[in-house]
Amino acid sequence: MFCVFEPLGSIVLVLGTGIYEATIRAYELDSKGLLKPGLSRAYIWHPAIRLPILLAIMSFVFISLSGLLLWGASGNVVAFLVLFFTPSILSLVIYSYKQWRLNDFEVVWWPPSSRQDAKRGIITMVRVLR
Fold this sequence. Notes:
By secondary structure, the chain is mainly α. Helix content is 72%, strand content 0%. Helix 3 (51-74) packs antiparallel against helix 4.
């Protein structure tokens, strides 16, 4: 039995991965100042929305429309819901992980003044007991 979901899903996966990789590469090059001058100044609506942000918006729209396409092809609403909410959840998880790594794998610095004390070289009893 032929299923529409398999070839359509593989095409969506390949295109989505390509847009994702292009977005990551554009962010890396832009953060290091290596993006070509024409591309680094290119924008559509506002000068703040440049190529990396435009690619991120485009990848989110593509993933959401892919969810609609797969929902229409398979009749399964879960495909749309997963593909619509996954980019937002994934970006929040990645941001939280980066902040967790910057805080030396501590969720909350306690007591609150220990971060400023550590910068000044003051050792508190809480830091010594760990």
